Amino acid sequence: MTASVDASDLVSRQPSDGGCSPRHVAIIMDGNGRWAAARGLPRTEGHRRGVDVMRRIVRRSIESGVDYLTLFSFSSENWSRPATEVSFLLTLLRRFVRTDLASLHKNGVRVRVIGEREGLAPDILSLLEEAERLTADNTLLTLVVAFNYGSRQEILSAARRLARDVAEGRVSVDEIDCDEMSRRLYTSDIPDPDLIIRTSGEQRLSNFLLWQAAYSEFYFEPALWPDYDEAAFDRALADYAKRERRFGRVTTQAVP
Ligand code: IPE
Ligand code: IPE
Ligand code: MG
Asked: Quick check: CB of 93 below 6 Å from ligand 1?
């Protein structure tokens, strides 16, 4: 919030390619620790470098015409890491919001945070809420920050709310469908991801967007997150553009 923004900070959007771009890209930013270890550095150094890459990919997403970019920044399970690493990651988040919010806002980025808010430190909670409030009316890119996010927990909490709504007569059992469920997830106002990228060569979801990824395309990138760059992101988008999404249909049928 303290950063000043001049015109050179503004990112411009390239003309649309006529529908081959993913509308929503979600990234599992993985490999910070291994990047640092390979250089004999503390894991925290990898996380620090990772924030710079995040900035670059946000810019690239705007330039590429992506409407939603979701970044997995901290999972519900990441609390089990050593306390020093967890506290460094929280500090990085605070610092990121404080230094980058003005520039994100100026660039028309709307920030949305998904994840469990209960139990978060009050200062983190208010920073996240401030970021969402300040940028709520922006329309160029929605940056979805998955923080303290776990998909099973998200689905359980939606199921609990649904059960409560049934018990209290607001919804009947027969009315329960995918929409009723989706509406109760953190992502209720966010379309499902078209493309999920995971860096560092790991090929798993690690409790990320399990419900929402039903028909997502996957792209596994060998580079560790601190080495990831615009060219690698462009390659993932170009690969996506060649894919055929069938949603259970056959090739000759129109896709919704
Ligand atoms: C991703 O990098 C960042 C977070 C999970 C917060 P890692 O810290 O998981 O790095 P590796 O996978 O151990 O290399
Ligand atoms: C997933 O990465 C979480 C984030 C990228 C924030 P992890 O590094 O925590 O996942 P696992 O433990 O290797 O599956
Ligand atoms: Mg990891």
From this structure: no
**Is residue 80, in this structure, part of any structural domain at all?**
yes
Amino acid, single-letter form, for residue 251: T
Q: Does the active-site annotation cover 107?
A: no
Active-site residue, 30 included: yes
User: Is the residue at 83 inside a domain?
Assistant: yes
Sheet arrangement for strand 195-198 = 109-114, 141-149, 68-75, 24-28, 195-198, 217-220
CATH number of domain containing 30: 3.40.1180.10
pTM (predicted TM-score) = 0.95
- In the chain, the number of structural domains is 1
Among 95, 125, 122, 100, smallest CA distance to 113 is for: 125
Q: Which atom of ligand 2 is nearest to the CA of 149?
A: 6
Q: Tell me what pLDDT residue 18 has.
A: 57
What's the CA gap between 198 and 218, in Å, rounded?
A: 8
Query: Domain residues for 113?
Result: 21-155+191-240
**Does the structure show a pLDDT above 60 at 55?**
yes
pLDDT at 8: 54
